[in-house]
């Protein structure tokens, strides 16, 4: 069960990184936790900010993701990451 969850979360993070709003919404509808950390301590909103995926970040906010959740290692929020990336 745990490996299935990890696989689903990996697919979610791939959708965020690629800007695939359709898959993002599908995974959210399936109940995946949008605020789960990946192996690098990032949430989906932090990854979206890091990758410059503004539309994804907006969709995550609309889907109820916590855009203020801190990076597990650095303590940065998605807003901090976006500012650092010049967005």
Helices and strands in order, then pairings?
Elements: H1 2-18, H2 21-29, H3 44-50, H4 54-62, H5 78-84
Put the structure in a nutshell:
The chain is mainly alpha-helical. The chain is built from five helices and no strands.
Task: Please name the defining characteristics of this protein.
87 residues; mainly alpha; Serine Threonine Protein Phosphatase 5, Tetratricopeptide repeat; 5 helices; 56% helix; globular
Task: Kindly describe this structure.
Helix content is 56%, strand content 0%. By secondary structure, it is mainly alpha-helical. The relative contact order is 0.16.
- The oligomeric status of these chains comes to single chain
- At the fourth level of CATH, the homologous superfamily is Ankyrin repeat-containing domain
Low-confidence stretches: none
The fraction of residues assigned to DSSP E strands is: under 5%
Number of discrete helical segments: 5
Helix and strand succession?
A: HHHHH
Kindly name the structural category.
mainly alpha
Mind telling me the C-alpha Rg? 12 Å
Number of strands: 0
What is the CATH first-level class name? Mainly Alpha
Cα separation of the termini: 38 Å
Number of domains: 1
Write down the overall geometry.
Answer: globular
| Arithmetic mean pLDDT | 92
In the CATH hierarchy, what is the architecture at level 2?
Alpha Horseshoe
Largest sheet: none
CATH topology: Serine Threonine Protein Phosphatase 5, Tetratricopeptide repeat
- What is the percent of helical residues? 55-70%
